[in-house]
Amino acid sequence: MDKQKETIEKRPPVVVIMGHIDHGKSTLLDYIRKSNIVEGETGGITQRISAYEVLHKNEHGAEEKITFIDTPGHEAFSKMRERGAQIADIAILIVSAEDGVKPQTIEAWKTIVESKIPVIVAINKIDRPVANIEKTKTELAENEIYLENYGGTIPFAEISAKEGTGIDTLLSLILILAEVENFTANPQTDATGFVLEANLDPKRGIEATLIIKNGYVKSGMTVAVEDTICSTRIMENFLGKMIKEATFSSPIRIIGFNNMPHVGGEFKAFAKKSDAEEYAKNWKEGTINATQSKQGEQSDKKIIPIMLKADVAGSLEAIEKEIQKIQHENAEFKIVAKGVGPITLSDIKNLSTDGDILIIGFNVNIDRSATEEAERRGVDISSFNIIYKMTEWLEEQMERLRPKIETVEVTGRVKIIRAFSRTKERQILGGKVTEGVINLNSIVKIMRRDFEIGRGKLVNLEQGKLKTSTVTEGLEFGMMIESKIEIVTGDVLESFSVMQK
Q1: Integer Cα distance of 105 and 19 in angstroms
Q2: Residue 142: exposed, middle, or buried by beta-carbon count in 10 A (0-12, 13-18, 19+)?
Q3: Residue 206: beta bridge partners?
Q4: Which of 23, 44, 338, 393, CA to CA, is 20 to 30 A from 361?
């Protein structure tokens, strides 16, 4: 018993900020990041980070850690909660003293209540000339959000995210609430936690940001997220610096997943790769069995999310009705965000990156910054001014995105014997066909230690300095491949065919 007690330690809180997109969430996160991360280190952050750690002195003067996560909005947070992922320990509901309570504020509040995590209200924009703090508190009470000394027990802070006023008070409230809630974890067990963000980097492969909720992870372990796995050989902290180990409440990024892990999925770390593979295999088999047993009981349709902006509320309502009419036996559209007015940067930033999403504007302008952000995320914005044209387009998208039976068959394997020269996107290699046939212009998977690290296209094949279009099993040959991935001796190229129905 005593040994067990020794392994339980206080865990830093993981905090999420939620509320109306225009009430200052991003400004608050930026201010906290810039003012509470060690000076000089913030300059090292070259990309948008979805989680970071800050230090703040508690009531006894000792510095304590707080982890902030930046979710793309309550829609994504809801999705995580539905998957059983209690990523955050504390929620901050931000509301503008200038605008008061808005529908999105209430939506965020409902999500927080359903997640059953403690909450602090941050009344922002108190520096604005038309700010009315008392009116905001009254509006909160009218919506059954009862603050301390205003009929309830919810702690609150009056802040200006722009000026920094009240931020120290807010951070102190977080530490006090964390003390009351007594978040603990075991530093001696293998790490578990959740996936906050996942994406495909063209140079590095599939990478994910994880939040550790218990235990530790170190270099050389293997992480499993449902049926996907990844080595912790390349592990970075939130500043993008390589690290050898990390423990609870820390955000980490690891690179090299064999498949895209689900945002909100639970991860587990294993000392042995074979244990991680067994876990992933069992998870997949369990999912297949569960799906089979539920057939006929509930819909297994794929959800295709839509963000919709229209010129007027009437158009919005009409378009929604048209969208509901477009059905398929194994897919359906779901409007995850909607509104009246132009498509803005905030609209795009507030979207989840998980899965295919269609962004539609009807008779509205698109801000240039929104277009740039959409391009950065690799999503398209589609504009229409005639409803039936939009409906036809949506029917095409349904056909494109609906689940199809897909069979992937390996048609040839090449072992790389020698790497010669390389430019930015082309590389000359020598290899041997160990199985099947290799054809010119084939798209190939680049495999390293049984994991796919990228893809390439064979743009030239040569045998005995003569160009050829086909190389058969057992023969050595030279090739030129188009790929951003650097291929090394020992890598394997797999050509394949895909059949869809």
Answers
A1: 5
A2: exposed
A3: 200
A4: 23
Q: How many CB atoms lie within 10 A of CB 194?
A: 25
Residues in a beta bridge with 337? 307
Residues 289-315 have pLDDT tens digits of 554 454 444 456 788 889 998 876 567
For residue 345, the surrounding DSSP H or E stretch is: helix 345-349
SS3 letters across 148-194: ECCCECECEEECECCCCECHHHHHHHHHHHHHHHCCEECCCCECEEE
Lookup: tokens for 451: 């994991």
Contact between residue 322 and residue 387 where contact means Cβ atoms under 8 Å apart? yes
* 3-class secondary-structure state, position 470: strand
Collapse the DSSP code of 487 into the 3-class scheme (helix H, G, I; strand E, B; otherwise coil) and give the result: coil
Nearest to 495 by CA among 408, 413, 416, 407: 413
What is the rounded distance in angstroms from the CA atom of residue 369 to the CA atom of residue 35? 26
HEC secondary structure over 288-312: HHHHHHHECCECCCEEEEEEEEECC
Closest CA to 494 of 424, 429, 436, 420: 436
* CA gap 394, 322 in Å, rounded: 10
Distance CA 174, CA 183 (A): 12
Question: Does residue 454 carry a pLDDT above 70?
Answer: yes
Pairing of strands 63-69, 51-57: antiparallel
Cα pseudo-dihedral 275, 281, 286, 289, rounded to 10? -160
DSSP state of 50: S
Phi, psi of 4 (to 5 degrees): -65, -40
- Three-class HEC string of 377-410: HCCCEEEECCHHHHHHHHHHHHHHHCCCCEEEEE
What is the rounded CA–CA span in Å between residue 88 and residue 80?
A: 10
The token duo for 240 is 């993008």
Q: What is the DSSP letter of 498?
A: E
Neighbours of 58 (CB within 10 A): 14
Calculate mean pLDDT across residues 66-75: 70
Give the H/E segment covering residue 100.
none
What's the rounded Cα separation, in Å, for the pair 412 and 494? 6
CA 125 from chain center: how many Å?
29
What φ, ψ does residue 209 adopt, rounded to 5°? -95, 125
Express each pLDDT in 27-66 by its tens digit: 898 888 887 664 444 444 434 557 888 888 887 888 899 9
List the one residue out of 74, 155, 66 whose CA is nearest residue 118: 155
Distance CA 103, CA 152 (A): 21
Q: Which of 254, 256, 186, 182 is nearest to 216 (CA)?
A: 186
